[in-house]
Amino acid sequence: MNDNQLAKEILKLSGGEKNISNVTHCVTRLRLSVNDTKEIKTEDLKALPHVLGVNIVGSQLQVILGGKVHAVHDAFVPLVNTSNENQEPGKKEGKQNLVSRFLDTLAGIFVPIIPAIIGAGLLKGIIIFLMFYELVSTDSDLFKFLDVFSDAAFYFIPVLLAFSSAARFKANPYIAVAIAGILIHPNLIAMMDESASLSFLGIPIAHASYASSVLPIILGVWFMSYVEKWLTRFIPQILKTILVPLLTLLIVAPVILAVLGPIGTITGNAIGQGFIDLYMSYGILAGAILGATYPFLVIMGMHVGFTPVMVQSLSKYGVDYMMALFVASNSAQAGATFAVYTKTKNKNFKALAGTAALNAFIGITEPALFGVTARLKKPLIAVSIGGAIGGAFAGAFHVEAAGMGTGPIAGIPLFLGNTFIYFVIASIISLVIGFVLTLVIGFEDVPEANAGVIDTSNTDSKVPEEIVTNIIADQKILSPITGEVVPLNQVNDKVFSQKMMGEGIAIQPNVGKVVAPFDGAVEMVFETKHAIGLKSYDGCELLIHVGLDTVELKGEHFKAHVESGQEFKAGDLLLEFDIGQIKKAGFEITTPVIITNSSAYQSITDTDQAEIKAGDMLMDGTVEK
Length: 625
Fold this sequence. Notes:
Elements: H1 3-13, E1 20-25, E2 29-34, H2 42-46, E3 53-57, E4 60-64, H3 69-76, H4 91-94, H5 98-110, H6 114-132, H7 141-155, H8 157-169, H9 173-183, H10 186-194, E5 198-200, E6 203-205, H11 215-234, H12 237-281, H13 283-300, H14 307-317, H15 322-343, H16 347-362, H17 366-376, H18 378-396, H19 412-415, H20 420-441, E7 475-478, E8 483-486, H21 494-497, E9 503-509, E10 513-515, E11 520-525, E12 531-536, E13 541-545, E14 558-560, E15 567-568, E16 573-577, H22 579-584, E17 591-595, E18 603-606, E19 611-612, E20 617-622
Antiparallel strand pairs: 1-2, 2-4, 3-4, 5-6, 7-20, 8-9, 8-19, 9-17, 10-16, 11-12, 11-15, 12-13, 13-17, 14-16, 18-20
Helix pairs in contact: 1-3, 5-8, 6-7, 8-9, 8-11, 9-11, 9-12, 11-12, 12-13, 12-14, 13-15, 13-18, 15-16, 15-17, 15-18, 15-20, 16-17, 17-18, 18-20
Pfam family, one: PTS_EIIA_1
Organism: Oceanobacillus neutriphilus
Active site: 26
C-alpha cells in the first residue's frame, strides 16, 4: 500500500472528509482533529499496513506511522478541506472539554514549528561542541555564521508562531506574519531604547522586547482572528481586499503593543522563570515525577503542554531543563522494548519490537510505546521506574539542553556542554533499569496467531484433523506460479521485504493461475480471494499473496477454485486471476510466496532460476536433525 492509498484508507476509517476539522503531524504521528470520535473505526485503522498504533485524545485522533508520517501527511492534506470548513458550526469545540481544547490548540500551534526548533537546537549543540574542544575560534567568520544560523529560529520565533497560530485560529497567515514583523522591527526596538514613553494616537505603548517571545504573538493572532471575521462581515465585498488587511493592521498592532504584548511577556517570563526556580530548588523531585509520568502523558497527548515552557526557556534563557528528563524516559522506553525483543518467542512480534527498539534508541519512541510496552502493559511499569530514576539523576545535576529534539542518540548534540557526562549517565541508568526490570517483571507474550500483519478475522480455517501441527519432515515447495523470480528483499512492501511474515520468495506472474505447490490442505481462503494459506502434510505453512495491496480489489478479478479445509494434490488449480485487469486497476502483480512457519526450519534454500514455471522447484526447507 503506497502513501496515497494509505492516506485514503485513514481518511475513510476516520469518518471521511466531513469528520476532519484539522490536520497536523509531529515526528511520528498524524494528528487529526475530528468532529465525532464515534465515526472512527479504531480497530480497522490499527490493521492497516504501516500503522503502528492508534490513539484518541479528546477529539484528536493520532495515527502512529513512524518514519512514514511526513509522506502520508502530505498525501492526506489534499484529500480534505484544510480550511477546516467541513465541520458543522460549533460542533468541534462544543464536544471538547477545556483541557482537550487547550492541548489541541497547543499542538496545532507548536507542532508545525518543531522541525525548525530541532534544527536550530542541534546546530547550537554542535557549536558548543566546537567551542568546548577549541576547534573553532569565537572570533572567526565560521563561528559567527554558525551562531546566526542557530540563533535565527529562536530570535524570529514570533514569525514562526504567527504563521502556525494563524493556521490554527483560521486567520490570514501573511497578515499575522506582518504583525510579527512589527513586533521585532529594528525601528520599533530603537524607539523603545531611545524613549522613556511612547504612545500611538494617545494610546500608551509599553516598553517590551518581543524578539524570541512566545505568548505575545499567539495572543495577538488570536485577537486578530476575531478582528478579521468582524471586518469581513461588515465591509462590502468590493472593498474587502483593500480595507480588511489595512484595518486589521491598524487595529491589531496597537492592541498588541499596548495590552496583549505586555501581558504575554510578563506571563511568559513568569512561567519560564518560575519553572527554572522550582527546578533548581527541587530538581531531583521534578526529574523523578516527570520521568515517571512522561510515557503516560504521551499516551494522553498531554506532553505537548510542556512545549511552550521549553520554547520560552530556550528563547529567553538559552537553555532548557525538561529535555533531559524526557530523554531519560525515552532511554527507559528503549531498554524495555529491547528486553521484549530478546525475550519474545513470537517471530513477527520480535521483528516489530526490534524495529521499535532501534527507533527508541535513536529517539523516536511512539512505535515502542504504542506497539510494544503499552500493548504488553507490564513493560510500561519498567519504563516508568527507569524514567523516574534516570530523571531524578538528571534533575540532581540540572542537565541542560541547548535546544529541543529527541534522544538519547539523536539528542546528543543538544547536551554537549558542562553537564554532558550527567546526560550520558542518566540515559544509561534509565536504559539499563528499563531493560532489567522488563526481564524481571516479565510480560504475557503475544500469541503467534495475534501478531501477524494480515487480518484473518474474515477467514474460516477448517483444516482436516489429519493435517499435522508440527514440522515432521523436509519440505520441497514447487512453484505455484509461472513467471519471473523476484528476491523477497526487492518486493515493494516492507511487511514482505523485511520478512516480517517469514522467509520466502516472490514471483512476477505471466500466467494468471496459482496451483498447489505440494500435497496438503487449504488452511484459509481470504474473503477477497487475493491470498490463500496452505498447509502441507509434512507441516509446512505457506502463504501465497497475489499482488500487493490487492485486498482493495475486494475479490474483483480473482476466482477461487478451492475453499477452506479442502485437500489438494500438487499441481491442482487453486486460484485464477486477471493480470491485465489488476495492473489496469493500478496494483502491482508481484506475488510473495512465504513460509510463515519458517523459524521451524534449520535452513531454507531458494531457487537460483531467473524464470520459473509452475511445478518447478521453488524452495527447499530442511528441518533440524
